[in-house]
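Annotated sample (chain length 528).
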Amino acid sequence: MSMKTSSQDRIGVIGAGLAGLASACTLAARGYKVVLFERNKWLGGKAAQLEGAGFRFDMGPTIVTIPSVLRRIFAEADRKMEDYLDMVRLDPQWRCFFQDGSVLNLMQNPEQMTGELERFAPGTNSGQRYLDFLKWSERLNDISQRFFFYKPIGGLRDMFDFKTAFDPSVLGDVLSMRMGRSVAGSVRSFTPDARVAQMMDHFTQYVGSSPYGSPAILCGIAHMQTDEGIWYPMGGTRAVPVALEKLARELGVEIHTNTFITKILTEAGNVTGVRTNHGQEIPLRAVVSNSDAVRTHRELLNGDIGRKFERRRKYEAACSGVVLYLGLKKRYDHLAHHDFVFSRDPHEEFDWIYKKGEPAPDPTCYLAATTCSEPGTAPAGGEALYVLVHTPYLRPHHDWKKMLPAYRKTIIEKLKTTGQMPDIEERIVFERTLTPQDIHDRYHVLDGAIYGLASHGKFLGAFKPGNRSPDLRGLYLAGGAAHPGPGMPMVLMSGWIAADTLDKDRVAEPTLDRATAAESPQRELVEV
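Output written by the structure step:
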């Protein structure tokens, strides 16, 4: 007997960023009818591209870390990630340029990196201490894998079963987390060299927060990066949402671009549908919101639910940034694909960004020089140089139309000096910029934040809003402003968690017509 599919059986996904695409693909692979709404004409959110004068730039993320997360999403549909993406490993993972003129490569292999550090900082035992740090980082990653990742965590009580809180092994895990310690403090307990410490701080810069205010548990990122590597997808990171869109369409996801949601419809504490900017009211059984979690509650839900969310905990936007997309007529041979041009003083830099709320006078510049791996991103002999400098999230008095010219000079001067590119202005033949205001307007994020919500707080900073709403049945959250947080692998994981949690909650019933299930690219749900 065939089963008729009604519109109410559909699951809605608001936002086709990486998390939204991950949720849509996971749900569709498990047999749900999915409708995906995206306000822009493209899918992938910040993983967009800019082209001009023969140059091509990734506009947002520039690398892939922890590819196992992405691989899991394809595996949901019995597909292989490698059939959709061609990725090359970056090693050195990044190259570091310091104020004193020294240069340090971060190598993936720990033993090889030990040798690099012994040559770079002789007599400091930095090589062995780096191995000690990675061993501790591996322990933190193990804790995260068991208690934190791939689960709809919203706070500490969701991580541990407090009935077993005094079990010696659990106590050992808690002690290893160094609760109450910061990333920066923990890093500096492992190395006496200030430059090496600055490099190690930046394992956590994927979350866009100050290492002086972020909890030590985030040091587990170091093991993830050295274990699985850093990768560049040929075609740029834009290739990732393109691959996920292809998978979504193969799985029958209904996609609507140029469509944004103006309200999540509710009744008696349940999600019932959404209203679009076109005035349509679409019945849905559940919704995954890949919109910023704070803005979802402020703008898309009724006042009581929104106020309850904001009373529970005050969340702060993560940092924003200025991006320069520089087309150079001649590339620099001393650059690796992935580089950091470090500030003179990290404490000063982070104090300006995160405490004073103003652009740092001497910032760290993150660079992606993509012709190292894909020469076609620039005309022959040239370079498509992506330059990102973290800035505070938008404050009411920030006017980036007025602020940008002066801050561009600050960035260019940093590249000329510490970055060892004294003639860079003579090489620029194409230039575009992205400011915090542009990020705010283009991506509809909270106060122009690149990385969702800040990870500040030495005890609870790692926790973001949980993926299952505690206030509204049928609402699930995904993206950088939901658990487990920002960065490409984490937002992909958040999308999978939201979909998996929804599935386990059995919000939707099986929607496949069994007569055609064998022909469907989706996998049939087992009725319970």
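Annotation: The longest helix spans residues 126-147.
Annotation: Residues 8 and 323 are 43 Å apart (CA to CA).
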